[in-house]
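Dear colleagues,

As part of the handover before I leave the project, I'm documenting each prediction I ran so the next person doesn't have to rerun anything. This entry is a single chain, and its sequence is reproduced below.
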Amino acid sequence: MNYGCNTFSQRKNINQMDKLLKILNEIPPYIIIIYIAVFLTLERFWPHSKNRKNRIKHLLNNSGLLLIATAINFLLSFIVVSWIEYVDKSKMGAMNLLHFSPTLNFFSGLVIIDLSSYLVHRLLHKFAFLWRFHRLHHSEIDVDCSTAFKFHPIESILTFPALLILVVIIGIGLPSLILYNAIELPVLFLQHSNIQYPKWVEKILGSVFSTPNFHRMHHSDEQKYTDSNYGDIFSLWDRLFGTFQKVDSENIHYGLKEYSDKKTQSFWYMITTPFRK
């Protein structure tokens, strides 16, 4: 009969979650600008692919997409936070019904979000309508840190319902979602940046996480490689579900064969890509 100890442990876990949530909430909203500055600098001195030209023009074109996406995501964030609060108060979702500990909810929520992201990513490649929007990301000829935010703004709207459904079925909490976003953003920059990383990065992290070389494969213009290595944070899902591919990253040619012309990289062409053949 350790009811007192269990109650104390639960309170301690809740306090720890509150502290972590506070830290995550204090991440400045302009952190993406810091990431861009840091990774642009690293790309300048330790490039993976050399002889890149028109880097500033390339950055500006992709930044136009970022500005639109930021406005849309601000609205979507308000909706999802309100939805999570409603689901939590209504005690809906598996985690709320099973009364898991806050710590278990926190970290299992992170893993479940990443799994769902993997599955949604596969759907973006599988269904022609969804691919019309997602192919913009894959049309990138010169993959670099700005590719991390080269997504069509409508793509986030199309995939958003999946998150709402996940929240109500699983009972994903706000701390898990905040942690996932806090991890995913730097990972996106790490994966897409044109940086020659030390070999130990792949050796040590590659068996668990979606490392730069792991993700570079996903940006190959060869379809069998484009349709592989979908994982956002963890590479585990690709290994489990048979979508893992490995090849020398030095031999990868980026982009899509139908978007190999430089004109396809202009802002206007990118924003209208889903509505072209």
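The chain has one domain: 21-275. The chain is about 65% helix and 0% strand.

All the best with the project,
I.
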